[in-house]
Amino acid sequence: MTTSKHLAMAQLANSVGDGAFIVTSALFFTRVVGLSTAQVGLGLTIAWLVGFLTGVPLGHLADRRGPRGVAMLLAVSTAASVGAFLFVRSFPLFLIAAIAYATSQTGLTAARQALLAGLVSPAERTRIRAMLQATANGGLAVGAAFGGVALKFDTTEAYLTVFAIDAVSFLVAAALIRPVPAVRAATERHASTPRLAVLRDRPYAVLALLNAVMLMFMPLLSLVAPLWIVERTNAPGWVVASLLVINTLGVTVFQVRIARGVTSLKTATRSVRVAGVAMLVACAVFALSAIDAPPAATAVVLAAAAALLTFGEMKLASGAWEISFGLAPAEQQGQYQGFFGTGPAIARMLGPVLLTTLVLGWGPIGWMVVGALFLGTSCATGPAVRWAVRTRPASKAVQPLLVEEYAA
User: How far apart are CA 294 and CA 301, in angstroms?
Assistant: First the structure.
């Protein structure tokens, strides 16, 4: 089995666990663990905040000790934290397990990205990353199916079984990473490399922040759109599930194809800009769904909005991968990917409150404000990338030829 296939299979196993967790976690924590919804929300917010703070140090650890070993360790620690959920029955123990889970997940993402950067040539990284993303969406669908079975039975035994499968999936991911070739640790190449240098890289920090703002599209389909459909449209209830199906299938089928055109920082910034336009149009179409129309017509409008948002997601991901790899020094990929990878944690923490306030509070105008935010952020990415290119020698970039091409 080739290296890329090992990474893809590990990603598949990992995402199966994620899918099961996403679908069942809320009911598991309230019905099995015995927590209130307020405790669950508080615990997960604290956990992801800690995960956000530990992303860079764990990425740095991957640089210093080698990303393969650190990725395996964090996959095992994720499995252990999920396994702990099977036994905890109090808020303090739940909080400890949740922090371990969020920290392990954030660090695992950084280590996997560093491993990919060390094993795959610069020209192939975005394509391979797109393949992994498509695989991940397939795994999420499988995991969600396991979770759906548990929701149907709605028993303690069903939830415990799904969480046990979740834990095992991360052990499988660790086993699949093991045969992958090792990447030399940074200490073997540049012993004097500054610790946590990414925290002093202001252009990269700005790009990571812009990416975090763009990633706020994530709560739109999972949280905001379902609430919008129920409260502001006359669409049938099954439309909520259909939007997630459109998103999952779209990324699984088309992500690799869309990523093929992203081969440099120039094409990456263009891809992000197109993503902003697509997200603006998607928000406008969501706003149109509030018009009093037959339920079937409203369902079609919502499906079109989900398709546009999914297209924007794929264009954003393709550009962001190229930017995050292309502007990171080769010997510091772990900490740089750990820093860039904090975007999802920020989006999960801030997105729900901001987006529900705008969309559900302001209605169609709120949708247009959100769309304008996406468009403005995407347009700011180009100047930020040019700033980043000017502040680093091409010789220290991961893709020097592409950096020189962009600066030319």
Answer: 11
